[in-house]
Amino acid sequence: MTTIDLAGRVVVVTGGTRGLGAEMADAFAAAGASVVVSSRKAEACADVSARLTETYGVRCLGLPAHVGHWDDCGRLVDGVYAEFGRLDVLVNNAGIAPLYESLEAVTEELFDKTIDVNLKGPFRMTAVAGPRMAAAGSGSIINVSSIAAVRPKATDLVYAAAKAGLNTLTQGFAQAYGPRVRVNTIMAGPFLTELSRAWHTPEWRERARAFPLARAGEPREVVGAALYFGSDLSTFTTGTVLPVDGGRTSQS
Q: Which end of the chain is more exposed for a tag (fewer CB within 10 A), N or C?
């Protein structure tokens, strides 16, 4: 990570106050970038951005937004350009996976909320930011998907469908905004974030022994892929969906 220099670049991380988003925001700031931390809660955004500034000596900013709300996406991007005059890397990380008792019990509200945050939000953020990046001559957009997109279960089917759609958006937007803007996806496997308590049971750990790496990932293990896609190391990579999943999707 210390060999990657992102000084002078501006990175936006949605869902950047916890979990994988917070780890990626930290890594980009450590590499010298100015980081805009966004989530629904203004206080959390301010706290995380202040910590990054204090720790790494870079200019960071908290800009709250609900990416599931169409107009919030435009306001967020406008706010970034108003403060920094540029946007180099957009990380569409915000996501939700609400639980439900059965497929028949899924309400329209739950369905719409899941699609809004996981699919509509990244679409709108990319559609707003992509043309401005292209006009400036370069940019990188990183979507954060899930192996649920290719390993769906009845218990996460709405979320899985949204993430499958996000994988498709990655390929379409890569064509739309190339050659100046690169669009790629990190397809995350099981990571030990704040939300992992619901599934990281002894039974799950026993099943995980069959995975190639035989465990869940630590949040810091996502940052290598994020820095690769967000830096000049990936200048010939676009439209790619990269599994970072301990080998889970390599299994038939």
A: C
